[in-house]
Amino acid sequence: MKNFFLFGVxxxxxxNFSSCRSTKNMRYFQDLSSEVQNGKPSKAPDYLIKADxxxxxxxxxxxxxxxxxxxxxxxxxxxGGTQSEYGQxxxxxxxxxxxxKRGMILLPVIGEVNVAGLNEETARDSVQKRVGEYFKDATVxxxxxxxxxxxxxEVRNPGVYYNYNKSMTVLDxxxxxxxxxxxxxLKKVLVVRTTTxxxxxxxxxxxxxxxxxxxxxxxxxxxVLYIEPDxxxxxxxxxxxxxxxxxxxxxTILILSYINK
Length: 261
Known about the structure:
This protein has helices spanning 2-18, 64-70, 81-86, 89-95, 120-132, 170-176, 232-260, and strands at residues 54-60, 97-98, 104-107, 111-114, 139-144, 148-153, 159-162, 168-169, 184-195, 198-204, 218-219, 224-229. The protein has 261 residues and is an alpha+beta fold.
């Protein structure tokens, strides 16, 4: 009986050490050195506006009435300002200019303006040109408000995250999600991107510096970032269950052995 108990304890110790995951498998850029030429980050791609995107359009003019046409925050008696008008996702949806299926946004007085297939800068130029036909002293600002990415899988805080900067990298997105869990497979990172011709997927190996040269290193609006679980998770869960069962049996044997003395 005593020998069986000692055998059980030995098995538990073996399982405990075998289930420990090396920290090497949990480190980013394992091949990174002081020289990183091969892993030089790619240039952030220009996002081209497409149907169903939501745009922030602001027209500023010396004529207050002209400015009020394009923004409720500038209307008389409205004290919330731009933060209240666009601070929430629902407010952005209600107050933004949505691109229709024909690639147009509908502006007051101006009418429809084609913005599909344009980046943020060229879209501003296009709107500025149309606004200039009606209001000579007006200045236009255009921003994309639907810059969101979805982070799923083995991260600590999965969810949808909004970006209001010019670009966002995979590392930025993981930072927003509070990093990966201990069960994440850094060699199996998936980026799913919606394009005008369908979905396109990219595989990234976060342990290699060359990952920074991938087209998916910089995320685009509506990208989905998925961190797959490592195969280690299955063996760990199975070892845990087996360890608990063996511990229960060993405890029972120890109690019976004590009673029989």
